Amino acid sequence: MPDARNDDPAHERFMNEALRLAEASVQQGGGGPFGAVVAREGEIIGRGTNRVTPDGDPTAHAEIVAIRRACRALENFSLSGCALYASCEPCPMCLGAIYWARLDALYYAATREDAARAGFDDAFIYEEIEQLPEQRRLRMERLPAEKSQRPFEAWEAHDERVAY
Amino acid sequence: MPDARNDDPAHERFMNEALRLAEASVQQGGGGPFGAVVAREGEIIGRGTNRVTPDGDPTAHAEIVAIRRACRALENFSLSGCALYASCEPCPMCLGAIYWARLDALYYAATREDAARAGFDDAFIYEEIEQLPEQRRLRMERLPAEKSQRPFEAWEAHDERVAY
């Protein structure tokens, strides 16, 4: 379990590594200026940099990459007991991923406003998600479908389901 | 560009495929009850099912999987000109991914409340994201770091940066 005291020297070590990765991402990796690490019991178990343009994957934000690598290292979809250090406040996609990964804590350095100033849409997406669906700029619509509950019924009926 | 009229017969075809995938995910794939497809000009270019537990990846929601596959098919991190059909209203992680992927439109069948009733945290995560950081149940904290702006400065200075 990571120590969460603000004066924890591990904080500085892990955050410096996230910031180093963010800078290397631009200068060597060809990706956006973001880096992240997942730490557990004083050790880094997953590192990530932004891979959106080099990998052609809009979901390959540093935090998502670090989470996926840490899960692979632990062979577990839960990162309970771990903390994430991000060079910048995570966007809503990555914040959602942090909840799904059951991370204990999130530490970040730059803010969503810093990201917006550098040309990234994080603040815009936060505003959009907080709107009612019909007020979002994204065209989104519920299509009433007769079979919409069938997958959930199959889930309830499935004896070997693994909750997550 | 997908036709967005509600009576578009393609809507039904694509949504039925998303729902079929969601049901198959439980019965054959060992994943959660969710499916999604990315469509472009009347064709499906990416399919996804929930792979969280089979792949040990908390980010492998059906929408994320479908987006990544569609991007691979187009060799592009932008899905502008495409629409996503999801068996259920996307969680905040996936909604964020939909914005980053520049999808034109999102159609869904079941709602976040249906997902919550089946035991999934989508509604909880929406509530959390809308809170101020200090009011969230997730422990999150900004660690002031001297070098926090260095990655953005490197980005500005990098002539070959690819915006996304």
Shape of chain A: globular
Secondary-structure element string of chain A:
HEEHHEHEHHEH
Task: Extract low-pLDDT stretches of chain A.
Answer: none
Helical coverage of chain A, percent range: 40-55%
| Strand order in the largest sheet of chain A | 2-1-3-4
Rg over C-alpha atoms of chain A, rounded to the nearest angstrom: 18 Å
Biggest sheet overview of chain A: 4 strands, mixed
**Helix/strand structural class of chain A:** alpha+beta
Q: What can you tell me about this protein's structure?
A:
Chain A starts with 8 loop residues before the first helix and ends in a 7-residue tail after the last helix. Chain A is globular and about 55 Å long. The first copy, chain A, has a four-stranded mixed beta sheet with strand order 2-1-3-4. By secondary structure, chain A is α+β, with helices and mostly antiparallel strands. Helices cover about 45% and strands about 20% of the residues of chain A. At the A-B interface, helix 1, helix 2, helix 3, strand 3 and helix 4 of A face helix 1, helix 2, helix 3, strand 3 and helix 4 of B.
In short:
With 164 residues, chain A is an alpha+beta fold. Chain A has helices at 9-29, 52-55, 62-74, 92-100, 112-117, 122-130, 150-157; strands spanning 35-40, 43-49, 83-88, 105-110, 139-142. Chain A is built from seven helices and five strands; from the N terminus they run αββααβαβααβα.
